[in-house]
């Protein structure tokens, strides 16, 4: 199996970084392959702008997009690692999706048809939250309510299924032992 890891966190000392390291170690230990992109380290341009649309109309793909699209195409399983900020993903990841999952690559759409092109792939989404699960539930904010744009509205829409979400709650508030237990629970 070949994995693609899309990592979106700016802090190399973060728990997200520890998740990424654990996942890479697990993949290597299993003798599987992976591609990796760190959106912040690569200073990925998240802005879908005129050059993107102009290239699409010419039937071209810009080089930074072509690199990511090749990795997606080669993969069997996509792994996303990011924090939940304001009940969504970081803007850099949203911009990556906007630019990479384009019409003609991730799907085809015209006035009559929508065809997903990324069928046969699966995904796991690892997210960290600063809030405790009970606090979210007490305020009517189930994880699924703000993850649907990623799971259903993005990944499943373009044919990626199944999509599993692995949340880690209250990461900045828990003890180091709890974070260690969280890391040990990760299975690919």
UniProtKB/TrEMBL annotation:
InterPro entries: Flavodoxin_fold (IPR003680), Flavoprotein-like_sf (IPR029039), NAD(P)H_dehydrogenase_qn (IPR051545)
Gene3D superfamilies: 3.40.50.360
Gene Ontology molecular function, alphabetical: NAD(P)H dehydrogenase (quinone) activity
Pfam family, one: Flavodoxin_2
Keywords: Oxidoreductase
Catalytic activity, EC: 1.10.99.2
Residue span, Flavodoxin-like fold domain: 1-184
Record keyword rRNA processing present: no
Family: Belongs to the NAD(P)H dehydrogenase (quinone) family.
Name this protein carries in UniProt: NADPH-quinone reductase, YabF family (Modular protein)
The organism's taxonomic lineage, starting at the top: Bacteria, Pseudomonadati, Pseudomonadota, Gammaproteobacteria, Enterobacterales
PANTHER family in UniProt: NAD P H OXIDOREDUCTASE-RELATED, NAD(P)H DEHYDROGENASE [QUINONE] 1 ISOFORM 1
GO cellular component terms, A-Z: cytosol
């Amino acid at each position: 199996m070949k994995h693609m890891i899309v990592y979106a966190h700016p802090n190399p000392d973060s728990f997200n970084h520890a998740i990424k390291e654990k996942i890479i170690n697990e993949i290597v230990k299993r003798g599987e392959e992976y591609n990796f992109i760190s959106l912040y380290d690569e200073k990925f341009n998240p802005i879908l702008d005129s050059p993107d649309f102009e290239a699409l109309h010419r039937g071209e793909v810009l080089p930074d997009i072509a690199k990511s699209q090749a990795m997606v195409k080669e993969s069997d399983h996509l792994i996303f690692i990011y924090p939940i900020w304001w009940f969504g993903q970081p803007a850099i990841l949203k911009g990556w999706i906007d630019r990479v999952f384009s019409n003609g690559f991730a799907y085809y759409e015209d006035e009559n048809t929508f065809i997903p092109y990324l069928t046969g792939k699966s995904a796991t989404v690892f997210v960290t939250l600063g809030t405790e699960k009970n606090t979210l539930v007490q305020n009517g904010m189930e994880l699924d309510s703000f993850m649907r744009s990623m799971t259903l509205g993005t990944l499943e829409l373009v044919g990626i299924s199944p999509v599993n979400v692995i949340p880690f709650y209250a990461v900045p508030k828990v003890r180091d032992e709890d974070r260690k237990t969280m890391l040990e629970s990760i299975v690919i």
